Amino acid sequence: MHGRMLFIALFVVLLNGCSSYAVVPVLLLLNGGDKITDISSEEPYQELIGRCYEIQQDMNVMSTAGGCWIMGDLLLTPHQRVHCLQDRLGVLPKGTDINIVAVTMRQKATGEYCPQILIEHSGSPITEQEISLPVCGHVHFLNWNDVPMTEWWALGDNFELKDTYVQPCQSPL
């Protein structure tokens, strides 16, 4: 049904002699714009919730812009100079524990989508905002996922976080 609505909308816009630029707002309205969906309760992601990891190197908390929005508003990364990273808001030092609190999927109106692993952390003044571990291939070298994947992630794909970035927390004795 969605495809039929899209076809009718495009037909009406073009029939009325509107420019092709008029099609873009119609597409955005039909697609619902950008959205974020919580997939924490789905397999295999529910197994990640509550897991603790220890950061293996200093990590920057970076705000994003443009093409990185789909990866998260704030990213945890060892990088600072990437075209879509803006401001460095802080650093989580090596040895900091992070806990996975949610897995979400961001979708742009264009149809692109990307998972996010959201974390809680200690040892940083940035505690009010969600921080994401980027786990899709839109900006390949920012990707924390160690599982080989194409640029296009699919719902149900597993994550295996890079061991050079994090290791499971040690259980207290």
What does the model show?
Helices cover 13% and strands 31% of the residues. It has 173 residues and is of the alpha+beta class. It has 2 domains: 2-32; 36-168, no CATH class. The strands form 2 sheets. Strands 1, 2, 6, 7, 8 and 9 form a 6-stranded antiparallel beta sheet that branches. The protein has a 3-stranded antiparallel beta sheet with strand order 4-3-5, with no helix packed on it. The chain is globular. The N and C termini lie far apart (58 Å). 24% of the residues are buried.
Give a brief rundown of this model:
The chain is an alpha+beta fold and 173 residues long. It contains two helices and nine strands.
Chart the SSEs and their pairings.
Layout lengths: L1 H14 L7 H9 L3 E4 L13 E4 L3 E6 L9 E4 L7 E8 L4 E11 L5 E9 L9 E4 L31 E3 L5
Antiparallel strand pairs: 1-6, 2-6, 2-9, 3-4, 3-5, 6-7, 7-8
Helix pairs in contact: 1-2
N-to-C SSE string, H for helix and E for strand: HHEEEEEEEEE
How would you sum up the major sheet? Answer: 6 strands, antiparallel
Which structural class do the helices and strands define? alpha+beta
Instruction: Work out the strand percent.
Output: 25-35%
How far from one another are the termini?
A: 58 Å
Number of domains: 2
- Any low-confidence stretches, pLDDT <50, length ≥5? 1-10, 20-31
How many strands appear in the DSSP assignment? 9
Average residue-wise pLDDT: 77
Integer-rounded radius of gyration: 19 Å
Overall 3D shape: globular
Q: What is the number of helices?
A: 2
The helicity comes to 10-25%
